[in-house]
Write a structure and sequence with these properties.
Blueprint: E1 2-5, H1 10-14, H2 16-28, E2 35-38, H3 45-54, E3 60-64, H4 66-74, E4 83-87, H5 93-98, H6 104-110, E5 115-125, E6 133-135, E7 138-142, H7 143-150, H8 153-159, H9 161-169, E8 179-183, E9 186-190, E10 192-196, E11 200-201, E12 205-206, E13 218-223, H10 230-239, E14 249-254, E15 256-260, E16 268-271, E17 274-278, E18 281-294, H11 296-308
Parallel strand pairs: 1-2, 1-3, 3-4
Antiparallel strand pairs: 5-6, 5-18, 7-10, 7-16, 8-9, 8-15, 10-13, 11-12, 13-14, 15-18, 16-17
Helix pairs in contact: 2-6, 3-4, 8-9
């Protein structure tokens, strides 16, 4: 058993020795005594995960933010080794989605009851800046990716999620260039597109409300608007759970979508909260590609929802 951790992640970086002591003690109470593997820079967690698998890993845990989890998962795609999550980052979207919360020790102890579930993941293909990249949570293009791209790393380290809000409000008054999204033969124009596998967004909000990690498609939300001001109204729709009734918002369920930027514009892309290059790109579902440890309560709740829902693709499918 291995624990991959990011020494620069929010909760780890404040006091690495104390953090690891608390987490390993909580894991020991469940009978888990992992070998520790620290990341040593951006995009190193995937290679470390592959090394762990080659060394005979039965379980890989990851302590860090959603970016570190994403990197680790990219090294585990199509393997049979389960992935367990210990929140230690800024937003901890996956941990919040699973109901593990933000406290690392609590999540570590909860792993004893978690069950392995084979889940589908997303993949970003043919971005002009990046090789194919898998993701557990979401891919966003346009407004939110621009915020992620421009956020100050030092401010993020010091202020956490507040840094994102500061960056977001800094977009007011800025013109948002439109781009095109092709879905099942239909074409849409928007300034922000979110292909999500989870309901949680940023750790506190729900934008996609009709999707589950146990399903095998995205919820795709497309926002129109050539400036950031309409997004104040959209934000109110998110808070009141009325986004699906708002003019300028299109919500679809699909397994693939193509994002295309105008030739004179650079439209940024974010994957699981980390900057991931620019358009054009295609996002697609990779069925049952990863084994994820999930709490039984989450699995039971999501299975009941999935049974009640009937997947309906976009109108032109």
């Amino acid at each position: 058993m291995f624990l991959i951790y990011n020494p620069l992640a929010g909760q780890v970086g404040r006091n690495q020795e104390r953090f690891l002591g608390r987490v390993t003690k909580a894991l020991a109470q469940t009978g888990i005594e992992p070998r520790l593997r620290a990341t040593h820079g951006p995009e190193t967690a995937a290679d470390i995960a592959r090394e762990c698998i080659a060394d005979g890993a039965d379980l890989i845990l990851v302590a860090g933010g959603d970016g570190t989890i994403n990197e680790t998962a990219n090294g585990m795609i199509f393997s049979d080794v389960p992935l367990g999550v210990i929140p230690a980052g800024t937003a901890n979207v996956l941990a919040m989605e699973l109901g593990l919360g933000r406290r690392p020790e609590r999540a570590a102890r909860a792993l004893d009851d978690c069950v392995p579930v084979r889940v589908s993941v997303g993949v970003v293909l043919d971005s002009r800046d990046r090789r194919p990249r898998h993701f557990l949570l979401m891919a966003g293009a346009g407004l939110d990716a621009h915020i992620v791209y421009n956020i100050d790393a030092a401010m993020k380290s010091a202020l956490g999620k507040v840094a994102y809000w500061i960056s977001a409000f800094g977009q007011l008054g800025r013109r948002l260039p439109p781009f095109e999204v092709d879905v099942d033969g239909a074409r849409y124009e928007c300034s922000f597109a979110l292909a999500s596998r989870v309901r949680n967004y940023g750790g506190d909000l729900e934008i996609a409300r009709g999707v589950s990690l146990l399903e095998h498609h995205f919820e795709l939300i497309l926002f129109e608007g050539d400036s950031a001001f309409p997004y104040l109204r959209y934000f109110l729709g998110v808070l009141t759970h009325r986004l699906d009734r708002m003019h300028g918002v299109t919500i679809l369920q699909t397994k693939t979508a193509r994002f295309t930027a105008p030739s004179d514009q650079r439209i940024y892309l974010q994957v699981d909260g980390e900057s991931a290059g620019a358009l054009p790109c295609t996002v697609a579902i990779v069925p049952r590609a990863l084994t994820l440890l999930v709490p039984p309560k989450y699995r039971a709740h999501e299975q009941s929802i999935v049974r009640e829902q009937v997947w309906t693709p976009s109108p032109s499918a």
